[in-house]
Amino acid sequence: MKLSGWGRYPRVDCARAVMRDAEGARATVLGQESLIARGNGRSYGDASLNARCTLSTLRSDRLLAFDPASGRVTCEAGLLLSELLAFSVPRGWFAPVTPGTRFVTIGGMVAADVHGKNHHLAGTFGNHVESLLLLTADGAVRRCARDENADLLRATIGGMGLTGVILEVTFCLIPVETGAIRQETLRAGSFDEIMALCEESEGWTYTVAWIDCLARGKRLGRSLLYRGEHATRAEAPDATLAPPGRKLRNVPVDFPRIALNPWSMRAFNALYYGRGRPGTALVDYVTYFYPLDAVGEWNRIYGRGGFTQYQCVIPKAASRAGITAVLEKVSAAGMGSFLAVLKLFGAEGEGLLSFPTEGYTLTLDFPVDTATLNLLLELDAIVADHGGRLYLAKDSRTGARMMRRGYPRLDEFLALRERYDPHRRFESLQSQRLDL
Amino acid sequence: MSDPTAPAPAVSPPPPAPAASPGPVSSGPVSSGPVPSGPASAAAAATVPATLPAEATNAVLILGAASDIGAAIARAHAAEGRPLILLARQPARLEREAADLRLRHGVAVQLLPLDVLDLAAHAPLLDSLPVLPATVISVVGLLGEQPRSAADPAEAERVMRTNYLAPALFLGEVANRMEARGSGTIIGISSVAGDRGRASNYVYGSAKAGFTAFLSGLRNRLAGKGVHVVTVKPGFVDTQMTAGMNLPKPLTAQPEEVAKAVLAAEARGRDVIYVRPVWRVIMSIIRGIPEPVFKRRNL
């Protein structure tokens, strides 16, 4: 069966197995020389692909325990965040960390150690994991927590499924009074302005900026900052905890490649910037956190060839120089992106291959073609030279050298992998490409 | 054997279902105080019972609940707030699924063991239930391998018994009880394979054809007696049964689609449904091909 990540590049014929319970998963793991677990396929590149065996966790999606006093949840790895929120928000609980789509599995959130708009305060999702059950290459199920197999926990958080198959995860939700977010929008005319705004907004729970990546010269870095807080009942007396009912609309066809060109991109970016009205608004959590979830299969706007999302982080001291250099390179190439997002991360977490580290992260989308791949190689050099790294959950094309330069704890990860999986049973196209 | 006294799975009692409390949840804590240590199951005095109360008159019984389609149908009904009786050969394997259903939907879920091939066990099981369910759904099925079924009569018999004899007799017992009560819905998951015998799966197909005919007869017998019978022909479905087959995507339904179609058919009193409408067209064409032509095509 042809599988791909969310970027639809690469697309690979993969033998698929389905995990229904731990017993079945063990039989698959012991029966395969090479496999990788796959959740809902929302990582962008080839991290969830293995031609010989791709083990879908989507049928292991049971909610096993919920403590209404503490918000502690235990669930199977294939549970979708959207399903968890449908259960928890009406009960007054929200995810401690959420990525930009709710159609991810909890297991995938651990494996990619996802971050959200609250990273500067809450850290990554892995930070909130109390314990997990991991099926390792020898067929054993190991409980990993900070007081048991702590090394394996550090390698599994952000480990892209390379330590084993995550079976169950236990973590705590955060209490909310309403399902609404009080959002404030601010405009910044330049890169210095947006950096200053990000830094003075660090007291806000959620902050994220959208950048016009085609603006040049004095306007380079012009952006909109969105900051938000969970609305209290007093602030949003009319807001309910009920999930907003909304029909999902699908992109019906693959857009032709010609639809995306420097002019349409520039027009889109200018319009988007112009439409962003500074001010305060109450929005429901789906609109606030998951605007793109409202458009099903939005990845089709990049056409049949697929696209890649380029997300880098550059340590704070070098952020200004590094991000500016990346934006200038992109702008000069005329290769704009609908999505260009800037966010200031907080401190690095415990995951050995976890992406976030203190500094600015920039995210850009590009359709996949030769020009893009060449441009991204140039961006890699800029990022590495500024001490930065790339997000594995987005990556489909970088190299082992870039990986090694960006992740100083890589050898510690590889040593653990050698210990628990000496024959490299768990591998993906990405792990092969990056020598993981 | 079923053991209703078995310890309840580690779940905490869920508050009332969301649909019942559209406003802010009053019981939900709003301050982030210190988090108690200890497992989540510490608070697990299950108020959601592991057995069905006798007043659960809207209960749904699912035969073959361990299958992917059975699990999807169970979820869809639980989401409507309906209590469940799930039958499977090894009900212990359904404990986690049951825990999920109780937790998410706050419905009672009772697990009972039944080997549907053990025909003598049907009536005693139905008589032992706390309540005759409002809806009974048979999801049992066994595709088998046609070459094996053709070569080995014992294997063919197993396929025939599992797809026809056992579920038909079980639903027959149910029908008599529902007729006496004067109400109920019986739903049989049959197959498009029963619409015409084909070289590639005629043992399975013939059993499904028998099952389809049985359901049709039952429906006619019970019309006007308050009991409705639905025949479901899913077409290709992405399940354990079809794992490894290269099924065409536009013709292949997910188990959740089957569940949705079952729910809709139940609500609207439909008689015979195909899950994806395209299958009705395909099967009417396949049925219409004259036998002299059909036998030369290897379908």
TrEMBL record, chain A:
Domain FAD-binding PCMH-type: 1-176
Record keywords: FAD, Flavoprotein, Oxidoreductase
InterPro entries, A to Z: ALO_C (IPR007173), FAD-bd_PCMH (IPR016166), FAD-bd_PCMH-like_sf (IPR036318), FAD-bd_PCMH_sub2 (IPR016169), FAD_lactone_oxidase-like (IPR010031), Oxid_FAD_bind_N (IPR006094), Vanillyl_alc_oxidase_C-sub2 (IPR016171)
Signal peptide start and end residues: none
Residues forming coiled coils: none
Pfam entry (one): FAD_binding_4
Glycosyltransferase in keyword set: no
The keyword Flavoprotein is annotated on this UniProt entry: yes
Annotated Gene Ontology cellular component terms: membrane
One GO MF term: D-arabinono-1,4-lactone oxidase activity
Protein known as: FAD-binding oxidoreductase
Organism, scientific name: Roseomonas acroporae
TrEMBL record, chain B:
Pfam short name (any one): adh_short
Renumbered residue ranges of the record's region Disordered: 1-41
Entry's Gene Ontology cellular component terms: membrane
Keyword Cytoplasm: no
Cited NCBIfam families: PRK07102.1
Family: Belongs to the short-chain dehydrogenases/reductases (SDR) family.
Keyword terms: Oxidoreductase
TM region positions: none
Protein name: SDR family oxidoreductase
Superkingdom of origin organism: Bacteria
Source organism of the structure: Roseomonas acroporae
GO molecular function: oxidoreductase activity
Biased composition (Low complexity): 22-41
InterPro entries documented for this protein: NAD(P)-bd_dom_sf, SDR_fam
Residue ranges with Pro residues bias: 1-21
